[in-house]
Amino acid sequence: MEAEELLELYAQGERNFSRVNLSGVDLSGVDLRGIDLTAAKLSGAYLTNANLDGAILNQAILRETDLSGASLRGAGLMIAKLSGAILWQTDLTQADLGGANLLQGDLSHAKLVEADLSRALLGGANLTQANLSQANLWDADLSRANLRQADLTEASLRGADLSRAVLQGAVLSRAKLSSAILNGANLREAKLDGANLTQCDLSSANLREANFSEADLTGTIFNRAILTGTILPATHAPEAVPHA
Question: For residues 147 and 76, what is the distance between their CA atoms, to the nearest angstrom?
Fold first, then answer.
């Protein structure tokens, strides 16, 4: 389907465009609020600065699609294929990305406040300075992801895989990280005050000057972790030492 045909039908009130093929189509800056693009093919399409608030894109194929600056507030993207997609400065507030494939995606400066990213694949993704406050990242794969200076305040990361992820300068205040895997992660100067890290694996992690004040470190593993200048909660200081 060409862009002109879609826009004409949308203007006439049509909203169901499930399974259409829009690969490579240029829809930059268009208003497609509430559109249903379930299982649609949008690989390589241009949707920069488009308004897709409330859109349904569940199971859609968006590989290497450019969504930079677009608004997808409250959109449904469950199990969507977004590997290599560009989501720079994209607004995904309260969007549902459960189980979505975002491997190697660019989500730098993206707004993902209260978004559902449970079981999402974000390995190697760029989330530099992204806002993930109160986001749901339960069991998500964030291995080797770049989360430098990202805001994860009160985010839920229970069971998430953050092995070898870069979280330098990230804010994880009051985040829920129980049973999360952070072995080899870079958490230098990260803020984890009040975070729940029970049964969390921080083996070989770089924790230089990280702030764990008032954090729950019950059962946390610190094998070979770098703790130079790390601020640890007094109540857990005896446990929070590198183990052999």
Answer: 23
Measured CA to CA, the distance from residue 166 to residue 231 in angstroms comes to: 19
* 46 DSSP β-pair partners: 26, 66
Range 55-58, long-range pairs (CB < 8 A, 24+ positions): none
Q: What pLDDT sits at residue 236?
A: 58
> How far is 222 from 21, CA to CA, in rounded Å?
50
Structural contact between residues 156 and 136, judged by C-beta atoms closer than 8 angstroms: yes
Provide the 3-class DSSP secondary structure of residue 11: helix
**For the ranges 11-25, 131-145, 190-204, 227-241, which has the lowest average pLDDT?**
227-241
Per-residue pLDDT of 90-140, as tens digits, reads 999 999 999 999 999 999 999 999 999 999 999 999 999 999 999 999 999
DSSP code of residue 241 = S
> DSSP label at 181?
B
Cα–Cα distance between 6 and 17 in angstroms, integer? 8
Contact 122, 138 (CB under 8 A): no
Strand partners, 121: 101, 141
φ, ψ of residue 9 to 5 degrees: the values are -65, -40
Q: What is the pTM of this model?
A: 0.93
